[in-house]
Amino acid sequence: MDSNPSSPVDETTIRRRRSDGVAPPTAKDYLNPDYWNQRFSEEEHYEWFKGYSHFRDLLLKHLLPNHSVLEIGCGNSQLCEELYRDGFKNLTCIDLSAVAVDRMQKKLSAIGVDGIKVLEADMLDLPFANESFNVVIEKGTMDVLFVDSGDPWNPRPSTVDKVMAMLEGVHKVLKPDGMFISISFGQPHFRRRLFESPGFTWSVNWNTFGDGFHYFFYTLKKGERPSDYKASGQISDMHSLSLFHEELEDEDYIFRTAVEELNT
Ligand SMILES: C[S@@+](CC[C@H](N)C(=O)[O-])C[C@H]1O[C@@H](n2cnc3c(N)ncnc32)[C@H](O)[C@@H]1O
């Protein structure tokens, strides 16, 4: 969580977050809308991975004030309100959780932020016309689809189907020169193979941010797949980045390690 970026993760913290009832008993619960509804009915704000200030510079390189921006899986993050305060007014947020949507609408209206559209919608079936948005952004939302992926080198077909449904929807609603920004703990050797699937016209690049453990800031620019594009290499050619658990914080740690436990 972003509120205490320097805190080390220890067993006490992990047990506390589990016993608080915030982190679910199993990582699979992150796929259950009832879990999110229950959680958002009690929790005011939780910023997955890192807050806006940590990746603002990376993000602002790609945004223009007149851009239409879709945020997928807003939860109770402050991302859309921070974007609004930075001058981006054409914002739409969606979440599968009706409670998150209701509370986000009420919060934005209470703090005088008008004009952000907040809708209940499923990222696997985006309810928007083709080529509607300049930018689609998600933070930690796609990662939820991986909680029951099995072997990350060889995810279950059901996981791949869901991720592809999401990516195809995002690709479709992006304008011809639009950009998908994905903020994730998923390492490039796992994510690239999905991002670079045939049929997508976007180029795939990434940066990292964060101290200690680095999160990935992927930028997928539609229409810019190089003509000499070659899909990412074979799995065996790639090197795993080492993951320093002690550098992940609070629930990010639980999320990540629970996913790993579940998938071994
Ligand atoms: C890990 S949280 C990330 C929340 C927020 N983006 C942040 O950075 O703090 C995942 C969010 O995705 C939402 N979500 C899960 N499945 C979804 C789906 N199929 N469509 C849209 N939102 C979904 C959850 O309700 C939750 O708000």
TrEMBL record:
Q: Which SUPFAM superfamilies match?
A: S-adenosyl-L-methionine-dependent methyltransferases
Keyword field: Methyltransferase, Phosphoprotein, S-adenosyl-L-methionine, Transferase
Stretches of Polar residues bias are at: 1-10
Keyword field contains Mitochondrion? no
The Gene Ontology biological process annotation of the record reads: methylation
Catalytically driven reaction(s): N(6),N(6)-dimethyl-L-lysyl-[protein] + S-adenosyl-L-methionine = N(6),N(6),N(6)-trimethyl-L-lysyl-[protein] + S-adenosyl-L-homocysteine + H(+)
One GO MF term on file is: methyltransferase activity
Q: Where is the Methyltransferase domain?
A: 66-186
Region called Disordered, residue ranges:
1-24
Q: Which Pfam families match?
A: Methyltransf_31 (PF13847)
Q: Which family does it belong to?
A: Belongs to the methyltransferase superfamily.
Job description of the protein = Protein-lysine methyltransferase that efficiently catalyzes three successive methylations on 'Lys-36' in eukaryotic translation elongation factor 1 alpha (EEF1A1 or EEF1A2).
In its UniProt entry, what is this protein called?
Answer: EEF1A lysine methyltransferase 4
The protein's organism comes out as: Acorus calamus
